[in-house]
Amino acid sequence: MLLEIIAFSLGVIVFSKLLPTLSEEEVMQEETELMFGEAIDQEIRNHLTVEEDATMNLAVQTVGKRLADVCDRKGLVFKYVLLKDERINAFSGPGGYIYITRGLLKFVENQDELAGIIGHEIAHVCLRHAVKRLRDSNASLDSKEKLDELARFIVFQKYTAECEQEADKLGVIYTRKAGFDPNGLANFFERLYASQPRIISRGLFERFLQATIIGPERVKSIREYISQMETSERSETREKVRQKD
Ligand SMILES: [Zn+2]
């Protein structure tokens, strides 16, 4: 058991190195990031209604807390916002705001799938993807127009495929570290992709479901990554045993 724990943490350490080192310019003062996060959250709330259901909120917060406890920004207080929206979507803003729609919550089949989604969003926050966008846009807190533009960017997740891949990988590390099945995100994407025609006919389609974003290729690459991670852990276990002998 102890050996298993050692091997597990070693594997995580090796894979955590994939978190890129951020340059001075990429890291914003956390205080500034929080102010923007709050302002953008207000913009989002102006357009979308918050779901107050206590049971649903608790389900999101319970999974979120376990992931936040193992992520790379432990000092940040993550805020989980459940939206009264039947479309299947999840997104994150600067300052640790994680948004989940009621439609998504209804679609997930288990905690591992939900953890896969939240882990991916927490990874976007840790990788400061929204912060980089903020910097590039020269946004100011006084410009309602700019804030609205940023809110749209966040809701419709116009990140590059490269950013998505980074968040997929880091999210998988977080879910595994928090004790969830790391296949949750891939399982969710696979089911979502398979249900696409039915979901489109029910009017729940939006960017989150586009084949270029969530297709068999993305699922394949997440599964390959998990398998690499597990192989790396196994070889480290063997190395550890060899050293003990
Ligand atoms: Zn994403």
Give the secondary structure arrangement, pairings included.
Layout: H1 2-16, H2 30-47, H3 54-68, E1 79-83, E2 90-93, E3 97-101, H4 102-107, H5 111-126, H6 129-137, H7 144-155, H8 161-177, H9 184-194, H10 196-201, H11 216-244
Parallel strand pairs: 1-3
Antiparallel strand pairs: 2-3
Bound molecules: zinc ion.
Zinc ion is lined by residues 120, 124, 157, 159, 164, 167.
Highlighted features:
245 residues; mainly alpha; three-stranded mixed beta sheet; 11 helices; 3 strands; globular; disordered N terminus; binds zinc ion
Mean pLDDT: 83
Largest sheet: 3 strands, mixed
> How does the overall form come out from the CA principal axes?
globular
Largest sheet, spatial ordering of strands = 1-3-2
Low-confidence parts = 1-14
Give the N-to-C terminal Cα separation. 17 Å
User: What is the number of helices?
Assistant: 11
For the CA atoms, what is the radius of gyration? 18 Å
SSE ordering: HHHEEEHHHHHHHH
Helix content: 55-70%
In terms of quaternary structure, the protein is single chain
Number of domains: 1
